[in-house]
Design brief:
Number of helices: 8
Oligomer: single chain
Largest sheet: 5 strands, parallel
Number of strands: 5
Radius of gyration: 16 Å
């Protein structure tokens, strides 16, 4: 039985998926629902066929619904890195206000570069008034081979992100050979002990 770890179920931002996630998590000692919806203009228009206002409302209601079923809720704006920063800040502020305990910022298409991604995370944290009410995490894809570097750039700016980094390193181990060895070496050398 899993007792020391949080079991997380990923669910699209709709009541049906979130309800199924909550049902699946019932046996877990520590549970988390991770809900997500796309926030980039391209994804909203082509993938979701929704307006920004519809996406904003769906994100807000999804987090509220998930929080009524589970005390630990993570929210991700899919394709967040390519999203309009003003719209993204509005969505994330609402998600936190509705009860998101973790905010995850994905580079869904893997096109970020470290200097810009780290600055992007810092600016979001500075602009969102209630950003201190949630743990922040990063989720970088490796399309350009930059996932580890981008994640470190995001984490370097905020100590609360460090706990979430392990998820990334383990997750990309299948894509980037040696990522686990790299993480162990970096941890041992103190490279993951940044302060904000």
């Amino acid at each position: 039985h899993i007792t020391e770890s949080t079991v997380c179920s990923l669910a699209r931002a709709n009541d049906r998926d979130i309800s199924r996630a909550a049902e699946a998590l019932k046996p877990a000692a520590r549970a988390r629902i991770h809900t997500f919806i796309a926030t980039s203009a391209l994804h909203m228009e082509k993938k979701l066929r929704m307006t920004p206002e519809q996406v904003f409302e769906q994100a807000r209601l999804a987090v509220r619904f998930a929080r009524n079923l589970c005390a630990d809720v993570e929210f991700s704006p899919e394709d967040g890195y390519r999203s309009d920063p003003d719209f993204l800040c509005r969505v994330l502020e609402a998600a936190i206000a509705e009860g998101a305990t973790t905010i995850n910022i994905p580079d869904t298409v893997g096109y970020a570069v470290p200097e810009l991604y780290g600055t992007f995370i810092r600016q979001l944290r500075e602009r969102i008034p209630n950003s201190d009410k949630a743990v922040w995490s990063v989720h970088c894809h490796n399309d350009l081979g930059m996932a580890v570097a981008n994640s470190l750039a995001g984490v370097k700016l905020d100590a609360t992100l460090q706990d979430q980094l392990v998820e990334l390193i383990v997750g990309i181990a299948n894509i980037v050979g040696g990522a686990i060895a790299w993480y162990g070496r970096a941890k041992a050398e103190g490279a993951l002990s940044w302060t904000p």
